Amino acid sequence: MIINWKNKFHQTSTSVFIYIFTLLLCKFQECTQQLVIKSINVPPLVHAGEVDYVILDCDYDLKNISTEGLVVKWFYNYDNVEYQWIYGSEPQADPSSSHIDVGYKASDDPVTMYRAMKLNNPTINLTGDYRCAVFTFEDEQIANASMIVYSTEEIFDLKHRKKIVDGKERVEVTCNAEGLYPQPSMDITVNDVPLNETETPDLTMREDGKYDIMTQVSIMDEDLPRISLIKCTLSIPIANYTNPREFTYYTGTPTSTPSVTTNLLRKMEIQAINSSEPDTDNGGAAGASILSKNILFIIIPIFGVIGNH
């Protein structure tokens, strides 16, 4: 029994030693021979029309691996090979990818010189998932990243008009924006409080892939305070983009008030009447005539200014 126990202990110890030695050997080989992608650098957000180009970089290290069979590929949305470089040859790009600059060099190292992809004049159609794949005859590595090329509004209008429906006054608010990407959102608030009656915005995708969006609400005056700040906020949530527009609204029917010009003319008319009364001591008739002419000359330029405005 003692001999059998010693034999089993010896066999177990030997197996454990071999297992540990194998792990250490594999670990050593990984550290000394493994192909490594050190980093993949892809800008997560790009504003279309604001930059001339973007660089998608895939920095790798061959360690002690041979360059035989070295190939770098960039995939768009994982399936389409957009860019490929075979070590020792010139890089190539998909003929349909007009944005790619195949002559761009990411480094002076001949082993990593054409590892990156330069995209000129990025547009919204470059939004997607990108994959960098590095191959050799001995190993291969893959890294993924995403990029969103967003487009802000071409047009953004906030309009309102007062209406009377069933004898009650209300304000109709219309918020409209065009030419956004990716899908935008739109909210209307009153004094920073969201409207419960806000309907789902009318969203339309255009042929060029961009979106138009419109929201319209009608609010009764009796549901509003005397003075309200009405705001429309346009957003592209995935791009962390927001743009607010606002106006101040006063409830009640606007009262007509005399303009400055009207007040001035009335005042001059009163002065003219008072001055036209005969003044026998100072040649009243002549004085009134001269004053009337002067008033006429003053009124004419005033109406000229009004016409220009």
Automatic annotation (TrEMBL):
InterPro entries: Ig-like_dom_sf, Ig-like_fold. It comes from the Eukaryota. SUPFAM superfamilies: Immunoglobulin. This is Ig-like domain-containing protein. It comes from Aphidius gifuensis (Parasitoid wasp).
